[in-house]
Amino acid sequence: MVSENDAAARRASDPLTQPPILEAEHLQKAYGGRPALRDLSFSLAPGRILGFLGPNGAGKTTSIRILTTILEPDAGHFAVAGVSSRYPERIRSRIGVLPESQGYPKEMTGIDYLTYFGRHYGWTASEARRIGWALLEVVGLQHRAKSLIGSYSRGMRQRLGIARALVNDPAVVFLDEPTLGLDPRGQQELLVLIRRIARERGAAVVLCSHLLSEIESVCDDVVILSVGQVVAKGSVTEVIGQARGNGVRVQVPLSAVAQAEQVLEALPGVMRIVPKGQGSGWLQVELLDSASGTAPEGDTVNNGILEALIQARIPILTFEAEGSRLQEVFLQLTEEAIR
Predict the structure, then answer these.
(1) What is the mean pLDDT of each run of 10 residues along the chain (339 residues)?
(2) Ramachandran assignment for 47, one of left (phi > 0), alpha (psi -120 to 50 degrees), beta (any other)
(3) What CATH code is carried by the domain that includes residue 280?
(4) Strand duo 172-176 + 95-98: pairing
(5) How many CB atoms lie within 10 A of CB 176?
(6) Could you tell me if residue 224 is inside a domain?
(7) How many domains are there within the chain?
(8) Which structural domain, as residue segments, surrounds residue 308?
(9) Are 109 and 146 in contact (CB under 8 A)?
(10) Contacts of 175-180 spanning 24+ positions with Cβ under 8 A
(11) How many Å apart are CA 195 and CA 189, to the nearest integer?
(12) What are phi and psi of 253, to 5 degrees?
């Protein structure tokens, strides 16, 4: 039997150009004749983190339940590590899952909890305990291994849940709202852990979260669902680039707002300046459409805006292009799909 550490090391050393570890093709699901998921297709390579996004009712839960073999699709299929969805029991042995709400036995220690699940996956008692200790070290809980789970904080329980999801050395790990309820430091520490799991163990991670800044900071790829269908997919950079946007936002000191408006209105390619947020110093710079050929390209205009403000000795506190953040793209694409 190949050890858990050997299998993880082998996958982690493989290049990311290898075939996808998770592939979904044309998945569909309806409830009572009402479509909940329409034609979901995507792929995910080992060692990469996929942000799975969508507003409430978009089909995220249905998708994850299908991919974790809880539900059967009405049409389409998927594969994990080359195992077809026609074999759900084999799929379950290749995935790890951290659900949004997971109960824990308060009167069991962390190491006993992981040992129990190790035995469930076929390890001997000694192997299961060894793997449990190794995973507790991975998630930073080795010092609390013999403490009762009832004494763990929420962040510690989330770490234990991730360790539990890794017991069977999964090829794909599904994490549903792993940082929910944690303070900012706890959120950041857990995101670092998730990134390590993907990079060092070579596992593909599917991360569901409502915190778009979290997805943007840790994920390599993203799938955005709306009304049961994919409205965007690809790398985070590619998806952000899909959003329409023809303007920039610039923040200057409140005392310099009037001067900044005057400077910017004189620039070619600038259509108008709109102050945003009373007393904030933010200016919305709306640009002419460069695609029409009547205005300079966006990068040229952006550089011109920065240069003009610098020459006028106006401090630039913040500068953002429209559509430069995942949250803006998400709101735009899901709104368009609803229409």
Answers:
(1) 47 59 96 92 96 90 95 96 95 92 90 95 94 95 96 93 95 92 88 93 92 88 92 86 70 93 89 80 79 52 88 90 70 63
(2) left
(3) 3.30.70.100
(4) parallel
(5) 20
(6) yes
(7) 2
(8) 247-322
(9) yes
(10) 175/98, 175/205, 175/206, 175/207, 175/208, 176/64, 176/97, 176/98, 176/99, 176/100, 176/208, 177/100, 177/208, 177/209, 177/210, 178/98, 178/207, 178/209, 179/209, 179/211, 179/214, 180/100
(11) 10
(12) -60, 145
- Residue 24 belongs to a domain: yes
Q: Do residue 188 and residue 297 come from a single domain?
A: no
Distance CA 87, CA 80 (A): 10
How would you list the strands of the sheet with 22-31, edge to edge? Answer: 34-44, 22-31, 75-80, 83-84
| One domain for residues 214 and 265 | no
User: Shortest CA distance to 46 belongs to which of 5, 77, 25, 15?
Assistant: 15
Q: What is the DSSP string of 35-54?
A: EEEEEEEEEE-TT-EEEEE-
CATH of the domain at 204: 3.40.50.300
